[in-house]
Design brief:
Distance between the termini: 42 Å
Number of helices: 18
Order of helices and strands: HHHHHHHHHHHHHHHHHH
Largest sheet: none
Shape: globular
Bound molecules: phenylalanine
Number of strands: 0
Length: about 450
């Protein structure tokens, strides 16, 4: 690995960074609500199977392309390509992923900004600043702009420092904090009335729903968003891993952490909703489904916290700090995609590239904030429902059809000398070539 472009200094550093990217609002907010509205444990079961059988192989394709290329997404794809047509295709896929990451960051930073302002609110209230506390949860335009900018500022601050001093160092600090906070909150919620009912709702499978197309689509979409696929992020993180590391195991470990944290988040959110219900908060929408989306995080849960009196202020603080940390370790990975591209392809110093790209994305975020009623949904749909599956599918096509089988094997063999005789090598090439692109394509087509 070239000294000038940096890289992860340890296996643990890579795992924390990649799991940090994967674990985000998608796990702590998206997964529990999807589970609740899709038949509880039936969804968890399907999610587990799809995460390991479809998302993991696609994830491996991106990591391998990156480690082989030892460069940003576009250069890595182009290194595999053998003629002009393939190089153009590589450019489209790599650059498409980078744009997708930037678009996701533009709306993700707004939501993360809300999480930050909601985490400061209990502190302001505790200190007696009632007016300021009300403003912090007011959803006003100024509050939105200030906190989006603050969150983006934090993201820029970390990425300016580079891979080892920025991404790795902060992921190693923030991820253990996140896991600790999550476990503490789960234990606390379990001591409250109503949590047992939530626990049952979360873990009682409605097996009849396992093969429902809607459930399958939601589970696969969730798995792809959660592993940050189709955004160039895992290509660039893959490019920072040393050649001596065993990618097959590392990828599986990251997938396992991602899935486990989503599962743990469900253990927190669903019982918390039933606790809120025991305290008189409405948790079901008119159609009988559990309330999800922003109403859950910004109405149901705050109502639960305020019903707890002063303890609730600390619980609210812990919960929203948890959300903010999860968002930050994901947002840094989104910014790294475009930054690494500009640094390596246009010979720009990292600090300058980070600030400029961060500010450009912030301008887009502010535009979204001003037109929140239609633009947030539009950009989110465009990037996560169209961009991510298409790019992820094309990455599989690239790895399965364009990359020579012998070259793929020699790349995987680095750090994993016996891989040729493993189950992984018997299944994965075939999977990436046929199953992954077809399954992603089918799900995408169906979701239209
Ligand atoms: N995986 C992150 C989450 O679950 C979101 C993300 C998407 C991060 C794309 C990076 C790239 O919230």
């Amino acid at each position: 690995m070239g000294v000038s472009r940096g890289g992860f200094s340890s296996r643990f550093g890579f795992i924390m960074a990649a799991a940090g990217s994967a674990v985000g609002l998608g796990n702590i907010w998206g997964f529990p609500t999807q589970t609740a509205s899709n038949g509880g444990a039936a969804f968890v079961l399907v999610y587990l199977v799809l995460a390991f059988c479809l998302a993991y192989p696609a994830f491996m394709a991106e990591l391998l392309i990156g480690r082989y290329g030892q460069a940003n997404a576009v250069s890595s794809m182009q290194k595999i390509a053998r003629n002009t047509g393939q190089k153009r295709f590589g450019f489209v896929v790599g650059f498409g992923g980078i744009i997708c990451a930037a678009l996701i960051l533009s709306f993700y930073s707004i939501i993360a900004g809300w999480m930050m302002s909601y985490s400061i609110e209990p502190l302001a209230r505790l200190a007696g600043f009632t007016g300021e506390a009300d403003w912090l949860i007011s959803h006003s335009l100024t509050r939105n702009i200030i906190f989006t900018a603050l969150f983006m500022g934090l993201t820029i601050f970390i990425i300016r420092r580079g891979v080892e001093e920025g991404i790795e160092k902060w992921s190693k600090r923030l991820m253990p904090m996140l896991i600790g906070l999550l476990i503490l909150l789960i234990i606390y919620v379990f001591t409250l009335d109503g949590s047992r009912e939530g626990f049952n709702a979360y873990l009682n499978p409605d097996i009849s729903r396992v093969f429902e197309p809607d459930l399958l689509i939601s589970a696969l979409g969730q798995a792809f968003f959660s592993l940050s696929l189709g955004t160039s992020v895992m290509i660039i993180y893959g490019s920072y891993i040393a050649k001596k590391e065993n990618l097959v195991t590392l990828g599986a470990q990251v997938t396992l952490i991602d899935v486990s944290i989503a599962f743990l988040a469900g253990l927190l959110i669903i019982p918390a909703m039933y606790v809120a219900q025991a305290q008189g908060v409405a948790i079901f929408a008119e159609d009988g489904s559990l309330i999800s989306g922003s109403n859950l995080v910004f109405t149901v849960l705050p109502a639960l916290f305020s019903g707890m009196g002063n303890v609730g202020l600390f619980v609210a603080f812990g919960f929203f700090v948890l959300m903010s940390i999860a968002a930050l370790t994901s947002s840094i990975s989104m910014l790294e995609g475009p930054v690494s591209f500009v640094v390596e392809r246009h010979d720009t110093p990292r600090e300058k590239a980070t600030t400029l790209i961060g500010l450009a994305i912030l301008v887009l975020s502010i535009l979204i904030v001003i037109n929140l009623d239609w633009m947030l949904d539009f950009v989110a749909t465009l990037s996560t429902q169209y961009g991510q599956p298409i790019i992820a599918m094309l990455c599989c096509v690239f790895a399965g059809w364009i990359w020579h089988r012998s070259d793929v094997l020699s790349e995987i063999k680095q750090g994993n000398i016996d891989v040729e005789h493993s189950l992984f090598w018997k299944v994965w090439p075939w999977y990436t070539k046929f199953i992954c692109p077809t399954a992603i394509g089918l799900v995408f087509w169906h979701s239209l």
